[in-house]
Amino acid sequence: MDLGLKGKSVLVMAASKGLGKATALQFAKEGAHVVISSRTEENLHKAVQEITEITSNNNVTFKTCDITNPVEIRELVQFAEEKNGTIDVLVNNAGGPPAGKFTDFNDEAWQQAFELNLLSFIRTIREVLPSMQKQKRGHIVNFTSSSMKQTIDNLILSNTFRAGVVGLAKSLSQELAKDNILINTIGPGRIATDRVAHLDQVRADSLGISYEEVKSSTEKTIPLGRYGEPEEFAKQAVFLCSAANTYITGQTLLIDGGLVKAL
């Protein structure tokens, strides 16, 4: 299937590794013009090199951006528009907040999680909207977590702000439909990324068992019996932002191997 992404301008946030990088790779395979960002130039340079080598797509570039800094977000969007003429697709992504319970966090920690996992999405959407509204089309996809459907123990910050992203996207789907801008939210279950490995190690340490024991125990709770691969998640993001999707907006989708039992 031709997804109609060749030559389209795509901006992927927090994309030097993990799900962001995997998603940028899939867009590059489709011939899109991709700009990726994160805070670390060295990691971005390596990611662009790898994506280019795999896809032979020479229209992949990067710019550093701290997504908690509104000025850097604005400069990033301007860079992408100058590079590719417009922005057709925005992939909102951010690293997860620290693990912990309610009593573990003070106001500063809550504020930091808010700025990282909700306000950054708001700011980036605000910056790309003029370009999308001008051309009367666009796709936005927000990466969250399975906690948007079912809370996860010891992740109260994530549980709180991921739900906020869902509310934001649902509201915006109503407001932006007149401009043919589609916005959806997707959440990973146990996908084999550094973030998930870190959380598994935190749990292992708290329980006094090995990382391997934690992973094996978790896999038994997943109907498909394994962790997902970043590529499996990324392909769904690309579909939602492609010409193949013309009527799905305001929805939430889990890529979790059947892990979450909530409706």
CATH overall fold name of the largest domain: Rossmann fold
| Main sheet: strand order | 3-2-1-4-5-6-7
Distance between the termini: 30 Å
Q: Tally the helices: what do you get?
A: 8
Query: At the fourth CATH level, what is the homologous superfamily of the largest domain?
Result: NAD(P)-binding Rossmann-like Domain
Query: Which whole number gives the mean pLDDT?
Result: 96
Give the % helix: 40-55%
Question: What report would you give on this structure?
Answer:
With 263 residues, the chain is an alpha/beta fold. The chain has helices at residues 18-29, 41-55, 70-84, 107-135, 156-176, 194-207, 211-219, 230-240; strands spanning 9-12, 33-36, 60-62, 89-92, 138-143, 181-188, 252-255. The chain has a seven-stranded parallel beta sheet, sandwiched between helices. Strand 2 (33-36), helix 2 and strand 3 form a beta-alpha-beta unit. Helix 1 (18-29) packs parallel to helix 2 and helix 6 packs across helix 7 (211-219). The longest helix has 29 residues, at 107-135. The relative contact order is 0.15.
Summarize the topology.
Layout: E1 9-12, H1 18-29, E2 33-36, H2 41-55, E3 60-62, H3 70-84, E4 89-92, H4 107-135, E5 138-143, H5 156-176, E6 181-188, H6 194-207, H7 211-219, H8 230-240, E7 252-255
Parallel strand pairs: 1-2, 1-4, 2-3, 4-5, 5-6, 6-7
Helix pairs in contact: 1-2, 1-8, 3-4, 4-5, 6-7
Keywords: Oxidoreductase
GO molecular function, one term: oxidoreductase activity
Family: Belongs to the short-chain dehydrogenases/reductases (SDR) family.
